[in-house]
Amino acid sequence: MEDPGQYLAMMRQTAPLVHNITNYVAMNVMANVLLAAGASPAMIHAREEAAEFAGIAQALSVNIGTVSPPWAEAMEAAATVAGEKDVPWVLDPVAVGATGYRRALGARLLALRPTVIRGNASEILALAGAVSAGKGVDAGESVETAENAARALARHGGAVVAVTGAVDFVTDGTRAVRIANGDAMMPRVTALGCSLTGVVAAFAAGQSPFEATVAALAYYGLAGERAGAASEGPGTFQPAFLDALHAIDPAALNAGARIELA
Amino acid sequence: MEDPGQYLAMMRQTAPLVHNITNYVAMNVMANVLLAAGASPAMIHAREEAAEFAGIAQALSVNIGTVSPPWAEAMEAAATVAGEKDVPWVLDPVAVGATGYRRALGARLLALRPTVIRGNASEILALAGAVSAGKGVDAGESVETAENAARALARHGGAVVAVTGAVDFVTDGTRAVRIANGDAMMPRVTALGCSLTGVVAAFAAGQSPFEATVAALAYYGLAGERAGAASEGPGTFQPAFLDALHAIDPAALNAGARIELA
Amino acid sequence: MEDPGQYLAMMRQTAPLVHNITNYVAMNVMANVLLAAGASPAMIHAREEAAEFAGIAQALSVNIGTVSPPWAEAMEAAATVAGEKDVPWVLDPVAVGATGYRRALGARLLALRPTVIRGNASEILALAGAVSAGKGVDAGESVETAENAARALARHGGAVVAVTGAVDFVTDGTRAVRIANGDAMMPRVTALGCSLTGVVAAFAAGQSPFEATVAALAYYGLAGERAGAASEGPGTFQPAFLDALHAIDPAALNAGARIELA
């Protein structure tokens, strides 16, 4: 991928309305991340309106982090509408292996054929049905461990699958790349993974999902690198990260992206 | 208005207990904004206690951003008690035009006669029944477009109506002023509009709603100007903004307020 | 207590999975605080999975700040499992005296015998059945006022009770200490008390509850002191505070802790 910057440029030009049904921990961070990146976020979760709203958004993200039954209903309704209207939607299967309730919901959402699935290695392994030892929402497994599961999941569901960690892995079942951008402080700040899912949705609005996902991950990791250099700990990392998301332009992304074929 | 600082001074002196039924995205920011300003925030939304708590607070703010039916019930119950007890309450009709569910709830809350209504132009137009094209929670319309709707809404409901944007517009149906304070970065930080609604409620506790609203908007915009000057992007804007809310005193507000008759 | 640093060291070494059922305002801050401190937070509240998850966590924190009936059920179910499996659990009775709904829930949770109870003076007084005038979630009473109530509550429930304020007071009904660490800006930042409850839970995982609580409070207050020195207001205090939680090591805690027998 020679020019990931074009996907950032197009996202900013269209400023897509991204509908997010996400968890309580991530909601504020995700809205700020999407605003800083140049998209237009909306958090709408009530069963009474989620499906209607999914029909007017340009992309949808679904995250099961703090899910409960009414939210799960809204997720399924919104994802169904997104599928019917060809609105790209991204699934973030937070801690999907942790409880029986999550495993069942994960399977139902998978059946609704997400455009992109983004998770850590434990989550992708759990979603792929492999044995995993997910601990909380942290990745207990290395990205490499989940590469085969990611390829299988992508082929099975016709989805792009992104496994994020120290080095990210993205596959559509045929092609695969690794993205080496990022900073060691990112796992010490909550909701950065969840918020990335929203950015992937914003990039996927009207753009090819595989390339859009790769570009989104490189952009996000590059912002992390800048924030790491500009901060002194997990607290000052956060404002620096939002500033970097806002400041990085397509040329800077092309210069800083570290993408290679897997 | 020669002396908006007096409204800030009185608010800080009484440190009003402000009851907020607001959205998940804004809750933390709003609490921090109110604490930095000098008020005492409480977030209480359960149907089992919202009405009881509204009776002991000095002001109430109601925001429909991430509303669902149990929350809507609590909003209506709390607003009813506020009306009965002459506790000022402020309505923030987030994205009220976006779905049928929101339009119906907006109409029900309007019928409970809020003391102040604060929204962006799209929301005020939608609430006034005019045709609008609200996109997410961003303002798709300019403030000027909504001035007539704001005047009509104020006369109809006996409320002070504040339309916020690059230049804010406040009317009670008879009088009207514009407030030019603010910073271009504010729309790139989530929940700043929602949190302003809480500040308006705090200023309106025991003070004349029209003047209190104008003073609150000037104070908030001035803090935005200081934060803009002290930050490098939407991330560093946020801590600088809270610092500015905390640091601005009545004399500084009087010196920096840009209020004129409309 | 000569060596509070050993409790920090052990907490970091085990990086306990802390299950938090907390309020919407605090959730993000608490997750970041726990990550910065070195623990592994998870926010899980649905009735469908809270009890199951409580059985795999190393500690549980329960906070009633924005409670509603389904959350209350999950709190009781999770606390019951924690009691059965000897998982330490910490109760944060936010504004427990404010409404009848809260008083009833507080009594039910107390009957499930929390390992530690952490609140401000108003909350401890209310929980102990004494007359109190809690205002929002702020402490309307001084810590000293609640010392006898704290001792009584500790003896009655077999719990460690921590009353936090300008100078904290911790008792197990027999022993008692005061911790003088902290900064005057802390009450002006929302959710710092709630997040402290999570840190107490993390320290209590596999460690003696009384000593763990004392060490957690000294550590937290010391981070506040560093943040106060490094910031200019309540906004810049927050990132500085997370940086300090991350930076303080056991030796620094031992050097800076201000603990004395009460």
TrEMBL record, chains A, B, C:
It catalyses: 5-(2-hydroxyethyl)-4-methylthiazole + ATP = 4-methyl-5-(2-phosphooxyethyl)-thiazole + ADP + H(+). ATP binds at residues 118, 164. Its EC number is 2.7.1.50. It comes from the Bacteria. Pathway: Cofactor biosynthesis; thiamine diphosphate biosynthesis; 4-methyl-5-(2-phosphoethyl)-thiazole from 5-(2-hydroxyethyl)-4-methylthiazole: step 1/1. Its cofactor is Mg(2+). CDD domains: THZ_kinase. Keywords: ATP-binding, Kinase, Magnesium, Metal-binding, Nucleotide-binding, Thiamine biosynthesis, Transferase. Substrate binds at residues 43, 191. One of its GO terms (molecular function) is kinase activity. Belongs to the Thz kinase family. Catalyzes the phosphorylation of the hydroxyl group of 4-methyl-5-beta-hydroxyethylthiazole (THZ). This is Hydroxyethylthiazole kinase. It comes from Thioclava marina.
